[in-house]
Every structure is written in structure tokens, then in C-alpha cells.
Amino acid sequence: MRSGVKLKGWLSLYLIEEFAGNEKQWSDFVDFPSTDHTLNPHFTFYHKWNWGEHLRSTASETGNQFMRIGVLHVPENGVKKLVGVANCVCAPLRVGGQKYWYIPRGICMEYTDPSVVKDVYEQVKRFFKDTGCALVRFDPNLVVSTNATDEPEVTAHESDLAAVGAIRQLGTQSAAVWPQVERVWIAEIQSAGEDQEKRQLEWLKEHGMRKRLVSQLRKAGREGVQFSVSSEEEDLEQFLRMLNALDERKGGIGKHLDEYYRKQFKLMKTDGTEVLIKAEYQGQVLAMAFMTVFGAEASYLHGASSEEFRNLVGPQFMHFSFMNWLSENMPSVKYYNFWGVISEQMHQKGHPGSGYSGFKRNFGGYEVNYVRAQEFVFKPMSRIVNFFVDKLWAYKNREALGF
């Protein structure tokens, strides 16, 4: 299957095809883009080959469909060049029997030129319309608002807004729900070198770290809380036991089955994209977290902690220690993404998600809001019915979704 159209004023062509290449060709594009990852946040772990294998596995188990697509640029000389890729999953809508395609974090590509963004997503629309689905949903991590004040983040935000505008010109509609986190909390990792830990703490304090947490972190270090990074299976099993205990204590946190995490971790740990971090005290595990590290960003996916020694702030010490570890061992990582938080307004209203959100905000940092998932709709009636069903589902799961 392919889709393409000539660009106005140019003898060039963008095509979208089912990806027919191999893992090396895919990974050479995703893992080593032409632009430095610090300037290219739209290449994410969701675009990696092994994440696609994870999606393929879960799709097979649920009777859904998986597909990889490639975006090809064909210039005047006719030599095709790969300029974008995406992992895609087809699943049924909640009601009505129709299916939709979903592209996690959108097309993996450069988003700096709005005209190119518009042309590529026009081909996304054409390509998936030909599949007979009711709609195609995608959620590139394009920033629509942030309270960051540093120049690089502000400039990137302006570029992302132009890309969002280009996509919306094609007639997209905002989805009722967001498959991935939409509002995240970011801390910046300070460069390695002399007094790195001190400089990291100062940055966090300057960006709103809770004063009491500063002294608590220092106390945890004095008391001998230990930190480690692992990719061992036995540590994954320890994490799953803690996650299941948390799920039981909270009466359900929306977790997957254990095998989902085992399969994902087995695939993603091979090149260090996923790791486990841990805080221990006197041989007892205080906290563990499931992290991804890709490009310039480390992301906090899942976490669990013990009810013991809460005064030693094991979870907070673990994350702070990992920031310092990344600075020393993976200097290309510049951002620590705590993932989903609820808005300040929802905190004031006593939202059920205030606990986990406050935990993240208390570190200090800034808020980043991505564009709501967008949809190209091909069967409007099916979409209308499912929009309201999705809204109801989202309301019932508002704590996990963070709104």
C-alpha cells in the first residue's frame, strides 16, 4: 500500500508505504537522526524497532493488527530517501464494530518545516483512508504550552505550534481521550563535572523544589540509603511484586498483567532503552521505578514503593540519584520527564490524582503540555458515538489519566 502527492511548486514527491526494510535500516534512521536528539525530541522510544515488536506481540495476543510505515521523499532525481517512520496498531473502537488505526507519538520525523509537516500528514490521511478504517489517531509530542522560561524550550515551543497549525489545516479533530501522557513535568539534568550534585540540587530549588525535600534528601544520604540501576530479571520480578502490592493497597491503579511488563522489558533492555532503578536501606527495597532512556530524555513510566521507612523518602532519593547517575554515565540525556501530572487547578480542587502529581511537582521543574491526540475521521457517525463513549470512560478513569 502506498500514498503520494506532488508538492506544489516542486518536482518532488512524498510517499507513505508499508515499511519493507529491515531492522538495521529502521534503527539507523530512528537511533541516529541527522539532527542532534537535543534538538529533535520527536524521535522517541515509541518509534524504536523493538517497541514495534512489543506492539506486534500485544496486537497478536488481542487479535489486533500491527504495521510499520515509512515516509519516503522522492526528489527530482528519483532516489527515494527515508524521512519518517511509525509503528501503527489497528484496534476496534469501543462500540459499533468499526476499527481505527493509532500511531503512537505520530510520525517520527523533523517537525521544523510546517509545509513539510502538512504534506506528510496529508499522505497519512490518504494512506489510512484507503484501509477502510473509521479514523486514524496520532499524538506527536508537539508542545502547545509550557511555563519553561529558558530560551531553547521557548524556541522549540514556537516551532511546535507552527507544526500543530499545519496539521490542523488538514481538518483534524481532537480526540476525546489521550492515549499517551498529555501534561508532563520536566526537570533538567545538569552537566557532569565538579559539584554536579550540588548544581543539580540548586537547579531544582530554583525551579520550585519543596524546601523540606531538600533536607530530607540530604538526610537519606547521611543515613545510608543506597541507589542502583539494573536490567536484571530478578529485579524486574521484585518490581512487579511491589507494583502488585501497590495495586492492592490502592484498590487498582490500572496496571497491565505482569507478562506485559516482562515482554516489554526483555525487548527494550537489550540496548539500554529501559532500565530499573532502586533505592535500598539496610537490605530492604524502599522504592523501584521502570524508566526509559532515549535520546536527550529519561522518562518515568511506572513506580512502586514500600510502606517502610517512609521518613527516608526512598522514592524521591531514587529519582534524584538517577538524575546524578545520568549526568555522569549518559551525558547526552538532558531532560528528566516525570510524565503525567494534573493541572494546578485540579490540585486546588482536591483531585484524586493530587498525590502522585504532587510527588512529581515537589521536585521542582516546569510543566509541558502536548497537543491533544488528533484524528482524521473517515466515518463521522461512528466517530461521534465513540467520542461520547470515550468521554464517559475518561471521566471514570480521570485519576489515572490526570485531569
Tell me the structural class.
alpha+beta
- The total count of strands amounts to 16
Please give the count of helices.
Answer: 13
Q: Unreliable runs, pLDDT <50, ≥5 residues? A: 5-12
Report helical residue fraction: 25-40%
Q: What is the rounded distance between the termini?
A: 39 Å
Briefly note the CATH topology name of the largest domain: Aminopeptidase
H-E order: EEHHEEEHEEHEEHHEHHEEEHEHHEEHH
In CATH terms, the superfamily of the largest domain is Gcn5-related N-acetyltransferase (GNAT)
**In percent, how much strand structure appears in the residues?**
25-35%
Oligomer: single chain
CATH architecture of the largest domain: 3-Layer(aba) Sandwich
Largest sheet: 8 strands, mixed
- Spatial order of strands in the largest sheet: 1-2-3-4-5-6-16-8
Tell me the overall shape.
globular
Radius of gyration: 22 Å
Rounded average pLDDT: 90
What is the CATH class of the largest domain?
Alpha Beta
Structurally, the number of domains stands at 2
